Amino acid sequence: MAEAPPSLLSVCIDALTQQLLRPCDDDLLPCIYDLPSHLLDTLITRLPPLALRTFHHHLPFDEEGFSHDDSTKKRKRARDWNLNSAWQRLFQLRWPDRVKQIHRTDWEQLYWETHLQDCLDEAVEVALIPSFTGYIGDIQISDSILKYIGFVGNTNHSTCDHSKLSYHCLQFGSHVSCLGLQNVLCTAETSVLLRECKLQSLVLRCIRSKEQIDGLCKLLAQHCRTLTSLEFVHCALSTDFINAIFGSLVIERVQKHGIQHLSIIATSFLEPCTVSLPSGLVSFLSSGRSLCSLKLSENHHGWTFAKDLFVTLLNLSSGISVLDLSRNRISGWLFYYRRSLSGSHLSFGNGKSLKLLRVLNLRENNLGKDDVQHLRYALEHVPNLEELDISDNSIEDEGIRNLIPYFVGASETCPRITCLKLENCDLSCVGVNLLLHYLSTFKGPLKSLSIAENYLGRQVVEALGNFFHTPIEVLDIAGIGLGSDGFQELQSLIKEEIKLVKINISKNRGGTETAKFLSKLLSQAPQLVDVNAACNLMPIESLAIICCALKFAKVWQMLVI
Fold first, then answer.
1. Among 220, 251, 432, 468, which is most exposed with the fewest C-beta within 10 angstroms?
2. What is the per-residue pLDDT across 248-286, written as a single tens digit (0 to 9) for each?
3. Entry pTM
4. For 418, which DSSP code?
5. What is the spatial distance between Cα 350 and Cα 260, in angstroms, rounded to a whole number?
6. If we measure between CA atoms, which residue out of 114, 116, 59, 117 comes closest to residue 83?
7. Quick check: 419 and 387 in contact, CB under 8 A?
8. What backbone torsions phi and psi does residue 287 show, to the nearest 5 degrees?
9. Rounded distance between C-alpha atoms, residue 10 and residue 518, angstroms
10. 352 burial class (0-12, 13-18, 19+ CB within 10 angstroms)?
11. Considering only 127-136, 370-379, 446-455, 483-492, which range has the smallest mean pLDDT?
């Protein structure tokens, strides 16, 4: 059966699309804008990204953001043209898996930013080939990417070669504020290619050579007035490299930088900055009044590095609210922390960074019970702390006993801690029962607790049952060894409505009793939306119990079994 011929409207729209893909025609665009609204709406939904960009950027808006619709004799705001919805649809067609992760309003900006990132990632694959000796800007973009934006085949639509990386950098760079760059792209040429960008966030990977550092410094200096977030991953940094990098971020005349978030992750700090704080980093921390988040994670820092960092932080004029020192080796640092706070160091520092600290992550730092005792003293000088993570440290029950006085003494002053993580800390039911007892009477705003991956057994059930009836909203008790008997006892202790929103009970080998517990929990937790019950050895007949409970559940979004 022969296909039906295209409608006249489709033929006209296809013809207009081809015209919009060519260099801008000053006579054509006004004629398109004069089309009736219903035809314009249809045209907008059919245009590929490159044509929509031409249509969008030449709309005749006045100073107040209005355009004139001749067909209705009315003024229309930019948002009334449904352009943002059209960009959102194009983004969803190209990257369907990313849409749910995004809460944005300017979909055009996000579209071209993501497009350019794809082009750069593809260019990396070519530039990494040992035989590559050409210019990065001359790297050819594949047809699979070009077809998404409206270029089909090898038709040359302009005097510029649209198949080259340089074309995409210069054409769409003005939309870009966030980028990730591999080491091979850190060259002087790249700073020229990205000159149209207004970079606010930059992620850099595998920077290791002086040539790469020199290219990176030019890029940083070029965007130092707009950059607010900088992240290094899997790099190798010497003292000279660090001094050069952070020196390039300083804005001339004011001798300050505008970085708000600095992350250095899984990076090798070469001698001597493995054990001591590089002068360039000290200068950077001291000259940034806007710095609010510092992450130095998985870099194998020792306790002397942490000690020097602490002394620097005590004297900052900025207020860091997030400090992440996870996955290092800083055992013993907290002793110096306590001695400094009670000694002379606090007298010459204003301690502002401590007073404004909201999030402290010390996960996997080889901390012991004595470190927790010193930490508890330090926490008394951090009045605004909201999240504390000391997971993956062997603090044992003695460490919990050292931490408990913080909560007991703080009940009267209502500390702001809302999230506490104690995963895999070699705790027993004795220490956790004691902790839950004090937390059940804690007057602070604790909303989230994780004691996962500590083998506690069913002996912790009674304390858990009492804790369920506190204002707790997020609870992680995965892998604590409840077993079927533990779940059976726990469900009998839930006798009234609880405020849980999210719970993880996975890896407890509860069998059918897990399903029965879930049934009881869903009936008594009206706000529960997220449950992880995986790896509990539930037999097939458990599904009937869970399905029945879900029918009567008031709210639920995610259930993992």
1. 251
2. 998 776 678 889 999 999 999 887 665 678 888 988 988
3. 0.88
4. -
5. 20
6. 59
7. yes
8. -100, 10
9. 55
10. middle
11. 370-379
